What does this fold into?
Amino acid sequence: MSAPARPRPVLQLRYWLPVLSLAVFLTVWELVGRSVDPLLFAPPTRVAASFAELVRSGQLPAAVAVTINTLLIGYGLAILVGIPFGVLLAQSRTVGTVLRPYLYGIFSTPRVVIVPLIIVWFGVGYAGRLLLVFLWSMIAIATSTADGVRNARPDLVEVARSFGVSRLQIVRHVLLPGSVPFVVSGLRIGAERAVVGVVIGEMFLELTGLGGLIVTEAQSFETGAVLSAVVTIAVIGTVLIFGLDAVERRVSRWKERSG
Amino acid sequence: MPESKLSVEGIRKEFPLAQGGGTGTLQVIGGIDLDVAENEFLTIIGPSGCGKTTLLKIIASLVAPDAGCVRVNGRVVTEPGAERAMVFQSFGLFPWKTVLDNVRFPLVTRRVPTAEATERAMTYLHKVGLERFADSHPHQLSGGMQQRVGLARALATEPDILLMDEPFGAIDAQTRELMQEELMRLWQETRKTVVFVTHDLDEAVLLADRVLLLSPGPGRVRRIVPVELPRPRWEYDVRAHPDFAPLRAELWSALRGDLLADQQSGVAS
Amino acid sequence: MTAVADAPVRPARTPPHRRRSARRAVPHLVFLAALLVAWQLAAQLLEPIVLPSVDAVAAAFVDLVLTGELPLALAQSILLLVLGLGIASAVGLGFGILIGRSQVAHWTLSPYFSALFVIPTVALVPIVLIWFGFGMTGRVIIVVLAAVVPILLSVASSLRDEPGELVEVARSFGVRGELALLRTVRLRAAVPVIMSGLRLAVGRAVVGMAVAETYLRLGGIGGLIRDYGSLFQTDYVFAAILPLSLLGVGLSALVGVLERHYQGWRS
It folds into this structure.
């Protein structure tokens, strides 16, 4: 079961296998899809056709634009607010401990059930959808940042204090750089939360963007179109995560290379 | 009598013992008075638990004493200030900053203009022989090199008093000897007042103008021994000098007495 | 040399321990009280639809409990959750072992699970419902899809790392064969990591459950909230959201306790 010792064959196997399995998967899917009702099952060829049609008609690009807009603004705000809020939370042990259960409670409540409240408070418009992205993402970023700051190396804080540095400067030069792994972890969780949030808003509030596309196409049983939208969402999410990986690598350049 | 550069008056310090909600305090320092003259190199030595690091931190104003005060140039100090700079046993370099940024750190935070800060930092990096590593990160340097950066950082603030907390404790023996020599050269060149804490008796005698021996439980001055060995001390074998052995013996017998007394009374050191 | 009063002091008896826990609860209670007061005041100023008063929500909650709506909904939701998590655990464990121990399986199968992980569960709901219908099957599948990947990934990654000498020791005692080794050594060593994966999975499962029920308006807590929401009876909405939040938090805490229990042997 273990890979062969020589490097070359291993390399080939590593890249060929996923490709091979994908080919097998798509073929099986295609055949099954064709024999069952293709409308319902959407074999790969049908999905591709729907995708092309959606792009041609401009529906997909328009939906992508709406979704990305809400996503970036909501996530961006979450970062701008979340990191300072996290630093603040870490300043007072009592405040942090007291607020934590409520933040955690909000964070763990599925947003779908909050939707009725959002409708009452903000209607089905942009504000509500933005809140669904912003608030949950912000909480993830803030709590992770707070954890990082609270776990900052006290010996380095002492070093900074020995040079008579102000509290704000300690935050800037010692606490934040030292919390980078925590902050990045928070950014990741926040990104996932943001993507889910935008989709929920678009499916349950105003039907717009990629989420809205999913719902409307599903109502017409256009499974091919639905899958196209789902895949697009997955791609957006993946791009965001790759972006964060790149940011993390750049920010952690000072770290020792392990092993 | 010339006014001393640094004077420590009646310092006491207690720490609470937080065991299972009980009360009780550990008296770490039980009354210390000390005067350090300008340009003097004072070493402080003593067994573990005698409060020597705590004393140094009190002098640095990182820890507030329960009684007594610290004066620099006659004025009472309660906050860390530009006239004192500290060098730490674990080097205390910020791993995410380059060597240059680490040395510049105290200057930048004191709003020294960037150009001047960079120039000063490079000057002192040059003095410790590390100007080529200005853009490296601490993890790329050996222990000895990192401590030299720590030293450059402290010196770059151009303090009056250098406070050194077992700075060579985490460095291997051979490098330590080189560092001791380098420190003495720098001291002779820059003429700072130095308070140097160590647990190594030989090191204490080698470097000092005076050696202060603290006794533990609670920390008090046991003995102050002047060291009048000729300087510069890297130009000859100090240990071979006829005055070295008796000095060391005197300190060792006092130190040893304290160590044995600790063991016998069962007080955790 | 005088020995100073620095000998270790004998710790006082139990009361300080209880006193400490009580003291720690105080800020929480104070904040909660302040929150409730602020809420009540705000509710006076705003429309009852926008912010129902504390007593209105409490009354709604009591009503839901007494009419049996809440207990029924909770039971339905918990059933769905248990089924979904159970199947997700089995699938996650099975495939996780496979992917963790076989490089071939890893290269062949992992991409699909990673892709699944990146897709928000919500986005999958319409498709799953078209393919599997609106009944229990569809709902369970949604919860499984939500929860399976964290479990699988944690099983796989923990099994990929060799638990050091433990395997050698087991072999020296005559434990032979991959399956036996798995059972006696590898899985036991992997438990802490699997627990943390389970904690993540539980959170996602709760979301999956809520999403499935809300989209369908078919029973469970999600359905209950959606029904009252569409009637704009905000007091009932608040009253129903609370047990759902507590369910999610409670389950996570439960797994957290298990996690700590199994971490006990770690230094």
Chain B touches chain A through 22 residues (CB under 8 Å).
